[in-house]
Amino acid sequence: MSRSPLIARTAPTLRRAVGNLRKRKATIALVPTMGALHDGHVSLVRLARRRASRVVVSIFVNPTQFAPTEDFGAYPRTWKADLARLAAEDVDIVWHPGAEAMYPQGFATRIVPEGPALAGLEDRFRPHFFGGVATVVGKLFTQCRPDVAIFGEKDFQQLRVVAQMARDLDLGVKVIGSRTVRERDGLAMSSRNVYLSPQERQTATTLYRAMKESAGRIRAGEAVAAAMARGAAMITAAGFELDYFEVRHAATLAQVSSRNDGPLRILVAAKLGTTRLIDNIAV
To answer: What are the two backbone dihedrals, phi and then psi, of residue 60, each rounded to the nearest 5 degrees?
Structure first.
């Protein structure tokens, strides 16, 4: 029988709850989310449960990672359904602050990441994004004091940025990536998929197919540039507006020229109608 998690909405409440867990020698895993939870998020929670004795899930739609032209106001918010999902997974604490709790009046400090945050992928199209992510995740780590934190691999550059930040700032948190959860037809689960029309939803699977085909060609020995050009053409022919379709070093996100340049990752971002989708796979 599932139990309701403790819901913390202020930092003092959260500190007391986390402190009580620490007094009982608990290990703590944090799963940061922006809500609108789906099966992909549930997979993160289940991995967190395997890696620690207690699980904290944060739900906070972070305004500092949205540009003025982006969908902050329209971002789906499904609090009651989210809480029911987390209760079913026996989550211990849900950290659900308002913007005023995270960014009180006079807030004036930001984390400005470099390294993988300047790889020329998401940062090229959303230059504001990783500063907002690093700042809010840095706060979540200090607020929740986790031993481990679980992030999905779907946001692969974000995963690399957060892991680098945790190492560089000696935050004492082990950042763990969890594999992307997909629909049966290969589309990566995302809270933004609800924006797709039925026709767009069918077309969206092209991203995964293009990545798979390009990865297969690279593994078979085709030149990286040629294999990636074919995949990009497949995506644009389906009606996407392509931001990037690139193969990078999986650990550093550095540019590569051949399959011998290290473990490789294909990353893509493209807009279909008004919905921007991102995805990635290992080669």
So the answer is: -155, 115
Cα–Cα nearest to 267, from 205, 218, 199, 215: 215
Catalytic residues: 41
Q: Is the Cβ–Cβ distance between 268 and 283 less than 8 Å?
A: no
Q: 207-241 pLDDT, tens per residue?
A: 999 999 999 999 999 999 999 999 999 999 999 99
pLDDT per position as a tens digit, 265-277: 999 999 999 999 9
